[in-house]
Amino acid sequence: MMKLSGFRQRGGAAISIFGAIFLIIGLGIGLFFAKGLFDWMGARSWAPTEARLIAVNLRSNRSSDSATTYEVEAEYEYDWNGQRLLSSRVDLYSGADNLGDYHHDLYRRLNRAFRAGEPVTAWVDPEKPSRVVLERSMRWERLGFGMLFPLAF
After folding, report:
1. DSSP code for 97
2. What pLDDT was estimated at residue 94?
3. SS3 of 62, please?
4. Beta-ladder partners of 50
5. pLDDT tens, N- to C-terminus, the chain (153 residues)
6. What is the DSSP letter of 46?
7. Is residue 76 within 8 Å of residue 70, measured between CB atoms?
8. In whole angstroms, what separates CA 95 from the centre of its chain?
9. How far is CA 94 from CA 17, 36, 109, 142, in A?
10. How far apart are CA 20 and CA 24, in angstroms?
């Protein structure tokens, strides 16, 4: 009887360790996606300034499983406290994805302004002016997608 009890304890510990690893992975992925929520909350107090687009591109990546992801790339300059600064950060999120029409819509808007030579609004963190974005909206579908991982793991 004792040997069987010891076996169950060791098996239970292995399952607990295995479960903890999955929990940590799921929470880590969830936190990665939740970072967008925290960045969005902080960016709501950022100051608007006029920016001049230097380049705009919609980059597409096709993976081996035929899924195509998109990411808007842009270079722009803006003035902050008498300094001319350059940036290439477009939004609050890093990386490409294929969730909805976000990247296509943003590209169309920025490319239209670029071709017309019109300025766009950049949002600057007054405490750290190198932190700047052209789009500071919350991408709820990306947050929702990211929250599937903690639930699954």
Report:
1. B
2. 75
3. strand
4. 121
5. 455 554 455 566 666 776 667 667 666 666 665 566 677 678 899 999 999 999 999 999 887 776 888 999 999 999 999 999 999 999 988 777 777 898 999 999 999 999 999 999 999 999 999 999 999 987 767 656 656 555 555
6. P
7. no
8. 6
9. 31, 9, 19, 11
10. 6
Instruction: List, edge to edge, every strand of the sheet that includes 83-87.
Output: 83-87, 68-80, 47-62, 120-124, 132-133
| CA distances (Å), origin 86, targets 10, 72, 105, 134, 138 | 58, 17, 23, 12, 24
Beta-bridged to residue 55, according to DSSP, are: 75
H or E stretch covering 123: strand 120-124
Closest CA to 109 of 136, 140, 143, 72: 72
Contact 59, 95 (CB under 8 A): no
**Which long-range contacts does 137-144 make (Cβ < 8 Å, 24+ apart)?**
137/40, 137/91, 138/36, 138/37, 138/40, 139/36, 139/91, 139/93, 139/99, 139/102, 141/99, 141/100, 141/102, 142/33, 142/36, 142/93, 142/97, 142/99, 142/102, 143/33, 143/34, 143/36, 143/37
